[in-house]
Amino acid sequence: MNLRTFFQDFTDLIFPRCCEGCEKSLIGNEETICTICRISLPRIDRNGLNQDALRYKFVNVPEIVFSHAFLLFTKKSKVQRLLHAFKYKGKKEVGILLGIMFGQEMLASGELPAADLIISVPLHEKKKKSRGYNQSDLLAEGFSSVTGIPWSGDILQRVKYTETQTGKSKTERRENVKGVFEITGKIDQKSIIIMDDVLTTGATLEECVQTLIQAGCNQFFILTIALAEH
């Protein structure tokens, strides 16, 4: 055992580090999410029913050529705890790590989109100031770090403050986000990954796409960390 490992083990005895997924103590070189949780988190099968449901959400937007979610979101699950940790408890490292894990698995599967740029779905400045950061930026940062695809959290801005989408139908969600995004400056990239945390109806992502189409982008890949089960 080297000196660094000894001090880490000693510190863990006094100030135990806990997994953000299951709240059990982290051991050895584990960071943020324990090994068991990393392995057992419910992935979306690329050939399964959940993937089919995800694909159909964007069937009326031909510019969206590919969509995929990393994990399945269900209430009171480890995925919900992880999302809650980095959205509402300030655990930024969880968001970055989930982005890294997602990127690593897409690389390993050979399904990484050939995109020019990753754009994270923006928060309104009021909400971003209240939270301290945009959770989608963390996901994009982690994903970019392992895939090499550059990302931006500034090109697309949310210029209208809207009510929460929770509890709204897809039609209501579409109306709620209509015209809320704007492009700031020139965008030269044509093939874009749009990254967000949870996909429900897809209304917000569609509005992002429509705004970027007006700026000259013509091919989109939707990637989210989780797909909400209905």
TrEMBL record:
Q: Which domain of life is it from?
A: Bacteria
InterPro entries, alphabetized:
ComF/GntX_DNA_util-trans, PRTase-like, PRTase_dom
| Every Phosphoribosyltransferase domain range | 155-220
Q: Signal sequence span per UniProt? A: none
Do you know which Gene3D superfamilies this protein is assigned to?
3.40.50.2020
- UniProt family annotation: Belongs to the ComF/GntX family.
Q: What is this protein called?
A: ComF family protein
Q: What is the lineage of its organism?
A: Bacteria, Pseudomonadati, Bacteroidota, Cytophagia, Cytophagales
